[in-house]
Amino acid sequence: MSDFTPKPEHKFTFGLWTVGSTGRDPFGGPVRSPKSPAELVYLLGEVGAYGVNFHDNDLIPIDATPAEAAAIKKDFRKALADMGLVVPMATTNLFGDPIFKDGAFTSNDPKVRSYALQKTMRSIDLGVEFGAKIYVFWGGREGTETDSSKNAALAIRRNREAMDFLCEYVLDQGYDLKLALEAKPNEPRGDIYNPTTGHMLAFISTLAHPEMVGVNPEVAHEHMAGINFMHGVAQAWESGKLFHIDLNDQYPGRYDQDLRFGSRDIKAAFYLVKFLEDVHYDGSRHFDAHAYRTEDYEGVKDFARGCMRTYLILKEKAAQFNQDAEIQALLAEINADDGSMAPFAGKYTPQKAAALKEQAFDRQAISARGLRYERLDQLTIDLLLGAR
Ligand code: GCO
Ligand code: MN
Ligand code: MN
């Protein structure tokens, strides 16, 4: 039996808001009593997590006095030291307070936009104080219910202005910090700007400091949009922009479920884990999910352990896939190359183009070949179901 015990090198992290969720939803109040940030660190240490991430106000309530803030930070710091946990990422809550009811950086009100910048700079300072190297931006309220309310192009420009401002702030402070933008198509707003990872990648390329900014894709967010998550992750990776990742699960076409990682679409989770492991992604594996509302804190631990265990099981399955002789033989067959097209490969030259235009192709012979993907997929299913 394999060992699926989480270890620090797996870089499993959870947000304070994930295991700290009290189960509140739009239809009912809390089902679990709140725990302090320090208590949550002890819980995460007990289940074997490597790190913990926070929003400014998960750690320090928005109206805390300086003395209260200092006391909370002291307890939190002690819990981190006691459990050997780190803080790889931090973020700002730009969605909870009523001031953000119409967005933060994209609000029509200049006072809201300025307050959002102030809150983010202070929150960046707090994250850096605890060692964060990645700073996430999730613009949950940056959107609309009615498009008569905002100019969508102006909203993108305002968002850019804010990101450019904050990059300069980070540089000015000399912080060793990268920014990661997280897309979501809707919830809590009717529609959110930059709704997918692909939109975010395009947006990043328009910033003044694109080298400082990457993405934080989330399984549930792309599944809500009916998109293949791993493809978006691969695109981000390929362009050097996969700075962080939010793992959870989600049925398409439903409310934001934040399910335990791998609990809904095992196959999608498998291809994702396989991708991350194959390319040696070395960032945090951050679980941005919630325990079912039916659970007490023992159930929350079951949930957290389950996220990490499923990841490690799928990691082992990915290694098995890579070593499976029959699967690898099929892949070799699928990728067969007789070398005859080598003269046309690679960079453009006028000679290549001219020769290629003259080349004859036997379309029927080429397309007559069956690709054996049915067999390959069934082998994958057998492997995932433990039948190989
Ligand atoms: C959500 C988001 C958030 C963000 C978090 C960190 O759907 O609510 O995923 O959990 O990830 O605010 O930026
Ligand atoms: Mn989410
Ligand atoms: Mn998230």
Strand content: 5-15%
Number of domains: 2
- How do the SSEs run, as a string of H and E? EHHEHHEHEEHEEHEHHEHEHHHHH
Low-pLDDT regions: none
- Bound ligand species: D-gluconic acid, manganese (II) ion
Describe the largest sheet: 8 strands, parallel
Proper CATH architecture of the largest domain: Alpha-Beta Barrel
Describe the structure.
The chain has 388 residues and is α/β, with parallel strands linked by helices. It folds into two domains: 8-323, Divalent-metal-dependent TIM barrel enzymes (TIM Barrel), CATH 3.20.20; 325-384. The chain is 46% helix and 9% strand. An eight-stranded parallel sheet has the order 8-6-4-3-2-1-10-9. A two-stranded antiparallel ribbon has the order 5-7. Helix 5 (110-129) links the parallel strand 3 (89-91) and strand 4 (134-138). Helix 2 runs parallel beside helix 4 and helix 9 (229-238) packs parallel to helix 10 (266-278). The mean pLDDT is 98. It binds D-gluconic acid and manganese (II) ion (2 copies). The site of one manganese (II) ion has 5 residues, from loops. D-gluconic acid (GCO) binds next to strand 4.
